[in-house]
Amino acid sequence: MKKLASIAAMSALAMGLSSGAQAADETLGAVKGKGFVQCGVSTGLPGFSNPDAKGNWEGLDVDVCRAVAAAVLGDASKVKYIPLTAKERFTALQSGEIDVLSRNTTWTQTRDTKLGLNFAGVNYYDGQGFMVSKELGVKSALELDGAAVCIQSGTTTELNLSDYFRQHKMAYTPVVFDTSDQTVKGFEAGRCDVLTSDQSQLYALRIKLANPDGAMVLPEVISKEPLGPVVRQGDDQWFNIVKWSLNAMINAEELGLTSANIDKMKDGNNPGVKRLVGKEGPKGEGLGLSDDWAYNIVKQVGNYGEAFERNVGTGSPLNISRGNNALWSKGGFLYAPPMR
Amino acid sequence: MIINDDKLPDLPPPPSTVGVIGWLRTNLFSSWLNSLLTVIVGYLLVINLVPLIDWAFLTSDWIGETREDCTSGGACWVFISVRLDQFIYGFYPEELYWRINTMYVIGVILITALIIESTPKKPLIAAFTLIIFPIIAFYLLYGGAFGLEVVETHKWGGLTLTLVLACVGIVASLPFGVLLALGRRSEMPIVRSLCTAFIEVWRGVPLISVLFMASVMLPLFVSGETHMDKLVRALIGITMFQSAYMAEVIRGGLQAIPKGQYEAAMALGLNYWKSMGLIILPQALKLMIPGIVNTFIALFKDTSLVLIIGLFDLLAIVQAALSDPKWLGYSVEGYVFVAFVFWVFCFGMSRYSQGLEKKLHTGHGAR
Amino acid sequence: MPAEVNKSLAPASKPKFWNDPDKRAIIFQILIVTMVVAFVAHIVNNALTNLETRGITTGFGFLTQTSGFDILLTLIPYDATYSFGRTFLVGLFNTLLVSFLGVALATILGFVLGVARLSNNWLISKAAMCYVETFRNIPLLLQIFFWYVAVLGPLPSPRQSIELGSAFINNRGFYIPSPVLEAGFWFVVIAFFVAIGACIYLSRWNHKRQDATGQQFPVFWASVGLLIGIPLVVYFLAGSPMTWDYPALKGFNFKGGAVIIPELMALLLALSIYTAAFIAEIVRSGIEAVSKGQTEASHALGVSNGRTLQLVVIPQALRVIIPPLTSQYLNLIKNSSLATAIGYPDLVSVFMGTTLNQTGQAIEIILMTMAVYLTISLLVSLLMNWYNKRMALVER
């Protein structure tokens, strides 16, 4: 009899499992219910997403997560960070383990169309570059025929590299590592002549070298790498929220709004500012958010320029110049649709 | 006739067979070949060990705060001592370390009680360790009840995570292992073949692919809303993998029980589960302990693989620390430290299991 | 399932069907099968729904798509223009290469250590014991990392390579001249097989002669002579149909010749050193399992120490050694998947790593990879069972 009972219990369990909701999940509702945003970040990339000594996450990608939390929940700290390897990142998003993936992920056609994902915008315009040891005496990537190249597996860089060398009829030896840390170590140990990665990462990785001055980044940029936050396909509302959280940061910079001056400026007459802080214009209704959603982002996270300088720019050890990531009005690519 | 009834005193053995010289002769220089080998091996040991000892102890630095404190030229153990907390507790909030420490203390007391032979009521303690203690440990580590603050699993790391993975893996795989082993020895053909297939499949694939499966495929297997923590997924993978090995250990133990025991149980009119639960398993489990300890050692070493799926176990957290720009170039110290920690655990456990095996062995010999 | 005693007082009455062990077994098995099928169906259904609702492509179509990435070490022709299916084969061959070499090295090292452990020389047996106790109690992954650092660390850059004749060692690998075979080389290959045939014949002839006359012929050395001599003579007769391709420094790296990459060296070192520790213990217990009386009897017959080992102890010990040895071989093959940690392009690293990332088709790729390891495991088990049976039959 006991056996029968246990069988009954087990089949009941199986039934219970199978009846576990099949409904399409409304991410916004789920996030509001949980009270935090689950955000997929890298396992550690200085400037983009990196835990500090106390385990607090910081970086440009992390700021996107914080902006989303500020917009949705009114509190930028309500984020649960899930560190992911390059392999896991898409599955984690697909399976619903995370609500938004903000992990220096390149926007490509395959990823956008075949993996059930949507890219919500670009928070960093990157391109693949090369880092070499100064001793080598190389000044251009075109002199790299026959070189051994260290590279991180599972990235678009692997494909770009192959394209570039074939296109220029050069030979190379790929040395593939699993994580960026190992890649740097391999480069440092002399396993390869060249380290290739997105330019932003090259600067981040260079400061991990024992002697950063011994290495230099070559001028060539061999690919387009638009990096941006990713959400699941099929939830347009959530897609819009992430997209416009990023846009709000960019628009705020354009309007000259910073976390420091927004309280002063929100009562001014600038119509753009009025629309952004939710006094006029579309407000938060269409997004399903409160009207001060964009105000919360700028107040708690800052505008895009602030986030950039704090994490990767002059305020950080990476010291990357704005370059392509300046506003369109200042010669860069950043161009957010207007908020009206 | 003269008869000397007094026993002649024993002559001392020839000086070449006793004392240091005798020992050397029999053990090191018994033949030309042996002498040659001794000299070669001895030489190799000396030229390797002397610099090693010098590096690790004589010219090493132990106290300090930064890398500037490492001045002697040997090993820089400061790197370890500065980060020791992180290596043990991972990213666990510092003010909550007491929770992990409490768990360690309880665990150590329980295990000591189990190892010491004269402890009374051992089965009770064992049951407590296997059933109640994991629950206590869970609430201590994770919190969420009794007013304890929740600590998310992604903050767990270091030695604590390594131990959690290994212990949960072994404890959770025990019941599955028992069922699978019984199934494999069952007389029902379908049950037997299902269990055999399950066991052989998991034993035939590398743990790393199981971990990948757990981290990448498992989320697709559960329906929409159920989300599993990364650690939970890794644990599920490890448990499945480990159950297969555990089943084989248990099967070995079951096979060692003489057939008469099964027959006697049946003759007493006990049904299958009663005869297993009351007669066979209690005897077999005792025989299995060395085997279980051995699989535990293997699992303990294998937990280091979780670094490949991005969990920060002891090895992974040391590796992460190695890439800290402030402490570059101390990878040997880091690796030696990890190796030493693993070695202490594994060697201790293997000695214990060997001792147990010997004890059990003599027991059977006497019968 | 053992019979349950029928408690009914009237033995003549037919037992209730749930008390009949046979029927109960059938019902129980039907239940189990239903549950397993339901569980699997549930999982498959979930996976399919999840894949569909999330718009993820499924199927094995990706295997024919162009891969677009290069691989460090390929035993078969491959470059970025080949398909993803080809990357599977490249990875598989690299796994087989490291497994095969690892098994060979670990066996040799393990047997030497196992015998050393039993040596009557105190220093040697203790040194072997220390080796075993150290290496088997440290995680393999850590050892792989360690050897990778230890192999790479002290080696110079290509421009300062260590030169050994026409071979070079640097931190890009061990460069050796590789033979380039020309048309006439087939004769040498044929000659080699002829030599093998001659050796087999020689050994049979020797057996017969020994049975008849008791005299022995030094078969081993004669065979070595034949195996080297005949091909060599043919080689020169055919006009040396082979040239060497020497490695030379061109630009950053050496070109030409063959190269053993440091990843392979580190992985091989770690795998064979780790597994050898286990094999040594197996060999030791195998030899100890042969009763001392056997050795004494053999000595009493006037058989020398070496011949005793060869003719009496090892054949008997092998019977004890082979089953656990097989599982160590399987462990080594499975452990070779840790290659991914240092970037040796094995199946897991290439296929379950890069290809998985580029295509995103996790389920297909992980199942294919697991199937490969499972097949290898089953094949090795079968082979070893067959061998084991043969060894066991020799007993009588």
What descriptive keywords fit this protein?
heterotrimer; B: 367 residues; mainly alpha; MetI-like fold; 13 helices; disordered C terminus; C: 396 residues; alpha+beta; 2 domains; 4-stranded antiparallel sheet; 64% helix; disordered N terminus
Estimated radius of gyration of chain B: 27 Å
Taken in chain order, the helices and strands of chain C follow as HHHHEEEEHHEEEEHHHHH
CATH superfamily of the domain at 171-309 and 337-366 in chain B: MetI-like
Mean residue pLDDT of chain C:
84
Number of helices of chain B: 13
Shape of chain B: globular
Name given to the CATH architecture of the largest domain in chain C:
Orthogonal Bundle
- In CATH, the topology of the largest domain in chain C is named MetI-like fold
Task: Indicate the radius of gyration of chain C in whole angstroms.
Answer: 29 Å
Instruction: Please trace the helix and strand order of chain B, writing H or E for each element.
Output: HHHHHHHHHHHHH
CATH class membership of the largest domain in chain C = Mainly Alpha
Model description:
The complex is a heterotrimer of chains A (340), B (367) and C (396). Chain A is α/β, with parallel strands linked by helices and 340 residues long. Chain A folds into 2 domains: 203 residues, Periplasmic binding protein-like II (D-Maltodextrin-Binding Protein, domain 2, 3-Layer(aba) Sandwich), CATH 3.40.190; 96 residues, D-Maltodextrin-Binding Protein, domain 2 (3-Layer(aba) Sandwich), CATH 3.40.190.10. A 5-stranded mixed beta sheet of chain A has the order 10-9-11-8-12, with helices on both faces. A 3-stranded parallel beta sheet of chain A has the order 4-1-5. In chain A, strand 9, helix 6 and strand 10 form a beta-alpha-beta unit. In chain A, helix 9 packs across helix 12. The longest helix of chain A has 20 residues. Chain B has 367 residues and is mostly helical. Chain B has a domain of 169 residues: MetI-like fold. Helices cover 70% and strands 0% of the residues of chain B. Chain C has 396 residues and is of the alpha+beta class. Chain C has 2 domains: 238 residues, Orthogonal Bundle (MetI-like fold), CATH 1.10.3720; 68 residues, no CATH class. Chain C is 64% helix and 7% strand. A 4-stranded antiparallel beta sheet of chain C has the order 1-2-3-8. A two-stranded antiparallel sheet of chain C has the order 4-5. Chains in contact: A-B, A-C, B-C. The interface between B and C is large, with 61 and 56 residues.
